[in-house]
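ligand=glutamic acid
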Amino acid sequence: MKSNVRVRFAPSPTGPLHIGGVRTALYNYLFAKKNNGTFVLRIEDTDQTRYVANAEKYIIDALEWCNIPFDEGPNKNEKFGPYRQSERKDLYKKYADILLKKGWAYYAFDTAEQLDSHRKGHEAEGKTFIYNWHNREKGRLVNSLVLTDDEVQKRISNGDKFVIRFKSPQDETLQMEDEIRGNISIDTNTLDDKILFKSDGMPTYHLANIVDDHLMEISHVIRGEEWLPSMALHILLYRAFDWKAPKFAHLPLILKPVGKGKLSKRDGDKLGFPVFPLTYTNEESGDVSRGYKEDGYFANAFINMLAFLGWNPGTEQEIFSLEELIKEFDLKRVSKSGAKFNPDKTNWFQQQYMQTKSDAELTDLYIPILSEKGITKDKKYVLKVVSSIKERAIFVEDFWGLSSFFFENPKEYDAKASKKNWKEGTPELMTELITVINSIEDFSSTNTEKEIKEWITAKEIGFGKVMQPLRLSLVGKLAGPHLFDIIEMIGKQESIKRIENAIKTI
Ligand code: GLU
């Protein structure tokens, strides 16, 4: 049976999901699963001016790739639906009216020009204009706190534009509890009377967010630190409605790798690593931003890395499967201070996960890359290649660079290494080696090694004189796995062909 822990991830579809957003989703997911609760996805699209058409699909695709599916959301278990705020539009006015009736909200008719002039007037005196208790009833601002009911009704029926503002309480120290930050107190005199309902007939984020969290029976609000300044208003709204407020947890910021500052969407590819889970194409500008998936990261490596950006288990263990994360995750172990993003650590996680993948799984990932290059080799062969190179790979994309010589003749020979190792007399030596190789019957790695080394010893020359040119001939450079393993893999005919080629080319 599900518990009544219900959390939500509530992104605004204004563009691709940044890794900070994915981490918020992940922590919500882990918290829900740990508590046998429900993870809800709600699309907060009340700000039509910032709406981006392909963003919702991107968000859903990203959660799916990360393997952190939502239990309820658009087109899925719509028990408390709809889950898109634009589809709940008609519902919010009713709640704004409740607050008006209770005296917790008021109509304001001030035009943009009037507000601008107040702002400028204040600035000229070195002050900041805040629409709240200290000026809302002084007569210079046009609202239902100073106008008579008749005047208000007349303006509304005339079609005058209005907003509905929250009436923040005066002279109160509000005590709030954050699951991560502990007690926070706020002097309500510093709050401005935030707009709850806009002149375009849409609620603002604040109103819609509180109404929906209440109606969707959200028990814990886990979100980014950037929403901490809104917490007081949100708590006050719950109080004004006489609703029980959920518990709040504000996650630390994700910081740039060097120095201070929040890692932002705009950092994009600038810092040399992706800030998005999936590649994103901006439909307007055509700009393409890199994504972790397409850059070759495994989803579980990416998730493991993200889990550690602000949380730690309190032990030395760093590699956690999703199940282990669910078991260990605890809001009490989420830090208050910002988490520095470290791209090297991301690669470290990726490398660790690469080693835990089975050779068979990696072979299945490598075969399509080989087919694209027109190479068809049987699975057993590819499996052997993979097992010999995987230790040195971070990405599946690295496989080709580490193993092309298992499949084809080197395209070129390292110039520096050739100069140093391909000397006078080398072609003759290599021609002789061909004869030796030709005569070997048991072509296993150990036997070719034995026979070739015996021949070198008998000739009384240094091993390097033969081994280096041989490696150059087969691999094209002085790198790669054990040479005799390569010889065994590619076989006698191919080895001979490559030595002949090197003699002709170098
Ligand atoms: N729509 C808000 C956002 O885009 C949600 C904030 C919240 O979780 O309350 O981040």
